[in-house]
Design a protein that fits this description.
single chain, 332 residues, alpha+beta, Beta-Lactamase, Heat Shock Protein 90, 2 domains, five-stranded antiparallel β-sheet, five-stranded mixed β-sheet, 12 strands, 42% helix, 24% strand, elongated
């Protein structure tokens, strides 16, 4: 900032170009009579259009606009001159096989038009949009988790009431289950600064399912897995998946009734690990319970973090879930 009383420096074209380059701003002008669009070098790079292409028009640029955004952008472009004041529109383009977000900004209503030319800028706002999408995903996940925890607490209370002989026993057993649920949550949500070594797969599954174990009742949870390490990074992902399956079972499946059973087994073949989650004795499946936010979350987690897949098989006997993952990924 200049000192108080000092005059502002004279801005030359090279200074403006340096400033726009530093800010990542691309410049454009539009001839309202011929529809010709003139762009600076940065804009050509942003749109991945060759400078030798010839005359640039909206139709030329529209070839790179994401199909889902094209009609919206076309309508906005057509209405540009009727907009009063400044306008801004964000949209996606396809560049190098990747999706990039562009923000087009200018003045409507022929404001500041000169020689039949309207002026504006393009900004690459991909990082901002990715951050917004990540925040929306996180907010959705948090909302989903809170609702799940409330449902689980209700299910654990009902589960405890079936086996407790006195209110004191019920209070003790319920508190134990809630503490176990807290330990399971610690596995799912890693905290900054916390370090953990590799865990045994059997221990991981047992800790996550401990809140749902009804001692003295007919619900039986059986875990039969070989001695196998789960790496620090993948343990959080696998814990999230197992926790989501257990939550759904407590809501709709075998863990929601006293007669239900759950078997978790595992086998390893070469570089593939297969975990079988088998529920029996639960209520009949009345609706698809595998297509909500939680399902999307575990499908994405299995694919992105564990290099695997998850498949649901509903039958009259119950639910069988097959988790397939890379042994190498699981060990990391």
């Amino acid at each position: 900032m200049p000192a108080e009383g000092a005059s502002m420096p004279v801005w030359h074209e090279k200074h403006l170009r340096a400033a726009t380059k530093a800010a990542g701003v691309a410049l454009w002008s539009w001839n309202v009579d011929t529809d010709a669009i003139t762009m600076d070098e940065r804009a050509y790079e942003l749109w991945e259009v060759s400078k030798t292409h010839g005359q640039i028009t909206f139709e030329v640029l529209s070839r790179n606009i994401h199909p889902a955004d094209l009609e919206r952008v076309r309508s906005a472009f057509s209405a540009t001159r009727s907009i009063v004041g400044a306008y801004e529109i964000d949209f996606r383009i396809l560049a190098d096989g990747e999706v990039r977000w562009i923000s087009a900004r200018g003045q409507g209503d022929d404001a500041d038009i000169a020689d039949r030319l309207m002026f504006g800028i393009f900004l690459d706002v991909t990082q901002r949009k990715q951050a917004e999408e990540a925040n929306e995903l996180l907010a959705g996940e948090m909302s989903h988790r809170v609702k799940n925890l409330l449902t689980i607490a209700t299910a654990l209370t009902q589960m405890t009431s079936r086996t407790a002989a006195t209110k004191e026993d019920m209070a003790h057993d319920l508190a134990s289950r809630l503490i176990a649920l807290g330990r399971a949550q610690d596995l799912i949500h890693s905290r900054p600064g916390r370090t953990s070594a590799a865990a045994l797969l059997g221990d991981l599954v047992s800790v996550l399912l401990a809140p749902y174990d009804e001692k003295g009742a007919s619900v039986r949870i059986r875990v039969s897995v070989p001695k196998m390490n789960v790496g620090e990074r993948s343990s959080t992902t696998l814990a999230l998946v197992i926790h989501e399956l257990a939550t759904n079972s407590a809501k709709y499946g075998s863990l929601s009734v006293s007669s239900g059973t759950l078997d978790v087994s595992c086998s390893a073949h070469d570089d593939e690990v297969v975990i079988m989650w088998t529920e029996r004795g639960g209520p009949p499946k009345s609706a698809d319970t595998t297509e909500g936010f939680g399902s999307k979350l575990i499908h994405r987690s299995m694919s992105a973090q564990l290099g695997g897949t998850i498949a649901f098989d509903w039958s009259a006997e119950g639910l069988v879930v097959t988790l397939r993952m890379s042994r190498e990924r699981m060990a990391n």
